[in-house]
From TrEMBL, chains A, B:
Domain of life of the organism encoding this protein: Eukaryota
Keyword annotations of the record: Aminotransferase, Pyridoxal phosphate, Transferase
Pfam families, A to Z: Aminotran_1_2 (PF00155)
Record-given protein name: Aminotransferase class I/classII large domain-containing protein
PANTHER family xref list: AMINOTRANSFERASE, AROMATIC AMINO ACID AMINOTRANSFERASE, HYPOTHETICAL (EUROFUNG)
All copies of domain Aminotransferase class I/classII large, residue ranges: 210-418
GO annotation (BP), single: alpha-amino acid metabolic process
Record GO terms (molecular function): pyridoxal phosphate binding; transaminase activity
Amino acid sequence: MLLLNSSDFTQGKMDQSMSCDADMVKPLPKDLSHHYSDVTLARKPNSLKLLYRFFTIPGIGNLAGGLPNAQFFPFDTLEAQSARPQRWTPTPNRPGGDDALSSAMASVKVPSDGSKTAFHVVVPHDADTPDLTQKIDLATALQYGQASGYPPLVSYIRQFTRECLHPNVPYRGGAEVALTVGSTDGFSKVLDVFTNIWVEEKNDIRERPALLVDIFTYPSAMNQALPRGVQICPVEMDDDGMAPYGPGGLEDVLANWDDAKGKRPHLLYTVSMGHNPTSAVLSLERRKDLYEICSKYDVIIVEDDPYWYLQFPSAEIEEAKSRNMPLPMFKAANTLPKKSGYPFLDSLVPSFLNIDVDGRVVRLDTFSKTVAPGCRLGWVTATPEICLRIIRVSETGTSQPSGFVQAMIAENIMGPQPEAVAAFMSRSRKDQATFAGWKTEGWVRWLAGLRGEYERRMNEMCNLLEENAYQLKQSTPVRDADSDWGVITKTKLYDFKWPRGGMFLWVKVHFEKHPLFGATGTEGNIINGPALSKALMVFLTHKPHLVLASPGMMFSASPEIAARQGWSFFRLCFAAETDEMNRDCSVRFGHGVQKFWRVKEIEELEALLEEAGTFEAEEAEVLTSMGC
Amino acid sequence: MLLLNSSDFTQGKMDQSMSCDADMVKPLPKDLSHHYSDVTLARKPNSLKLLYRFFTIPGIGNLAGGLPNAQFFPFDTLEAQSARPQRWTPTPNRPGGDDALSSAMASVKVPSDGSKTAFHVVVPHDADTPDLTQKIDLATALQYGQASGYPPLVSYIRQFTRECLHPNVPYRGGAEVALTVGSTDGFSKVLDVFTNIWVEEKNDIRERPALLVDIFTYPSAMNQALPRGVQICPVEMDDDGMAPYGPGGLEDVLANWDDAKGKRPHLLYTVSMGHNPTSAVLSLERRKDLYEICSKYDVIIVEDDPYWYLQFPSAEIEEAKSRNMPLPMFKAANTLPKKSGYPFLDSLVPSFLNIDVDGRVVRLDTFSKTVAPGCRLGWVTATPEICLRIIRVSETGTSQPSGFVQAMIAENIMGPQPEAVAAFMSRSRKDQATFAGWKTEGWVRWLAGLRGEYERRMNEMCNLLEENAYQLKQSTPVRDADSDWGVITKTKLYDFKWPRGGMFLWVKVHFEKHPLFGATGTEGNIINGPALSKALMVFLTHKPHLVLASPGMMFSASPEIAARQGWSFFRLCFAAETDEMNRDCSVRFGHGVQKFWRVKEIEELEALLEEAGTFEAEEAEVLTSMGC
């Protein structure tokens, strides 16, 4: 594993009080190897590593490796036009507060001219520096490398992770990182390390592994676990995320576990910052409660946080304003002692890693939402021992992530290489020396800018949805009453919490108030919530609404939850569409629901259900595959 | 799965006689699903796919997906300076023949000036074409996509594979492709699809899966299979690759299988073109024999061929010349009816796919040796059904390969996009319109150029090794003899076949002729071949030799083979080092062996063995993990 001294990390602003001595009094992480899968225990180091110690003999001619010659790579450079970090406008870390950015900026976007906010990045074929953590060139980035990752990039990520993201890791030596090809790959490797495959016809039920998830969860995670025979164990959640206590909460599930149903779960999966699909952000207090339970029952916490930097401090205030509620007091999300020194980062709720005394937290990070999904680049943060096990999985599978993306991102953040400037100078003097590399300051500024963009979109969507949340209805005037005018009734059609983070809005539709709820269909069936929900989804895709919303059924952790609650929810993403479409669709969704409440003929509803039929059949196939 | 019509493939030169009618009379591939693993059978399509049918409604506002906005990707372009396909000089397809390239070129390299042989490649942020198979831009390449791969690249690879590489696939509809993040990933996915995990303490021995490999094989493949409990079953090989018949040959192993040792193998792994480590190229005739046996015993053939285009027709002739043997007759490697129309491709020995009547061949390809290992990009070619199973593994793991490399390679081969030219024009008029894209013609020319470079290196190394293969020794003059001069004896120290393909030279060292072979060590032990082999490896890393060679032990498919034969071999790579080092090291290796033969003191040998000690201990750990 690559080890660096902290002087390599010139942008670090970490509190210097954590000296080596202070680290030595910290406890070591616990030995959690009893959770390893059979395959993990059987994995050995790569046999080619036997020769590594000879590679460093000065002047050695290495005929042992099986490498092609870097001279024959067709690319002489890799280059890009890349955004300056200032391209997008941030929102305040403390809305209404006195930080540098005024509260008004929460809703005002400074228009930017892309062409003026770009610079040219060049990765040269060869960089001369002998320091592998600074050497960004194609001869190394496009050659075979170790599964731990490209040294310049992995050294940067490691220090950013240790010093900026999680400066409070409580165990001795701190956390390590292992690169992945994105967080889907990361979770796949975590499952490989921590679960055995279980087959109903072949294995004892008491050996069946189990995965704790929120009752509404990211379906891909379930799709990864289910073919391995892993049992999905839903844990109740409220508006603030997974519930530690109460009926169906984490403690309840673990304390009352029935061994006849499978092994008590030792793995928990959650999206803890901008939860997918519910948008909840787990507070530090909630984290402490959940962690205590996991520690008591020896559960490993897998924290999958692609949206971590998308926390929206304005949501609570804007929600209150729009609903004429009293404005809430500002509460700092991070009250832990050590800070990164970057106000944006320090304003965010901290990861479980920062309270991980035992070393039982495995965090998944990705560049998918901070740069682009097409990177297929991410990393796991955990104890050095767990990271080593993840890297062994990479050695026999993905190897390291693509050198194309590793080199481009390393150069973009850490650049420029003197060789890159020289290579580019010879072609285009105009742009030479315009690129100084983002450095950590620029990287953090980029993230803050993206947060600003997505926070404004979130606020826009919520404001527009609020406008159509109620059905106003004038009852028919009653003769002989005091007035000719009927009473205006106000029916709440849907409800939502303004997202505190992430990319999604989780809308609960009150189908029980729909005129056809409980009506009798043409075949004598009773129209229920699930039927109305399916009908609405299809109805919304019709003109003039033309909006596709994700049905809550898809995120339900079991068929029971889908049947009990899932049908009443829709997930709306405020990230993917253009600004204009985002606004239009927010209005179209609201109008669509209003219009759906005017569907009063059973035949019209049944036509929609018929159209939904195909969808339902496909859905059944997915749901039955859950089998829990 | 992406389906294309052949008009998309403008460079195709395929024999047009394969009409649809001709395809319809071909047999369908066999159903091989009885070989699928439990996990493979349990995998379902991604649940998010349920919504795909709504995505295409015109004007639909998609709030259902969970995508970030492409506007917020920091990269406005991706660019590169890339080689023109003509940069490297090919060697003749038929040495001594009358093809366009003269035989003399087999050993003459035309020096090239890199700067004059480069052009500028630009991938724009947005390309306007609605044809997804032609749309190469960052808005799509860096966005989430389907695990089957980036449409422009996968459509290109698919047609190149079907029409140029394997035009003779005998089953109806032909082969499909599934992208991987390189062939290590490819084989990992193949193991996932075709083997259950087996644990000695838990599972019945009769359920143990097995993998047929050559007695000398690529160690990473074994490292991938072993932790899953897969039994490694070595098959004898000769100079021409895996042996179909004879003791220990494929038929023998399968016909005399003992079920008490595990399940009869249904999976075979081999590097069939430029075998790693032995450099053998399986002839079409040998392939037919092996295939017949696999068909009889229902074995799936995994053909891992990173070196496929590195076949060296000059090796046989140059070998004969250097040894004063009669020159061999030229024999065409590919006598199958359908051709690609590209003489270089048609001169190569064809893949097993071209005789795969049953659909039991799974071929692994990679860009690691044709572009660069850092691509982490490759593909599986197999029946559509098997490819679908591979793609399902990708869906819950790697997803698709990195968009950075997919876009760059697509643009480099298929480009340019009009939008790319426009974007680049605005910055650097000088280089505008210099890039026309390699197209298939350029891609094939690039491969032929690389083959030329590596073939020349191979010939150089072999020639230099020949010079030191013999020890010439003048015996002490014997008094009273007819002459004052002793007899000159010629001892062959090492032997090798000139590589017919790949990147490796497989040298057999005749340790049994070493002066200390059979001598008694200081602790009464007898000095044997394995001891001399270890000592030589270490000796060669000392000054002035300074050469590192891979010991044959590392490639031995079992501890028995390592003990019986492995120690007598070394693998030398003629690809990785510079031209100059390649020559120097070839001489240094020869001189080193010569010098090693002059080690006559047991103490000197034992000092080398002591130095090898650490290595041996590490090796033991790897070998015991094989446990078969």
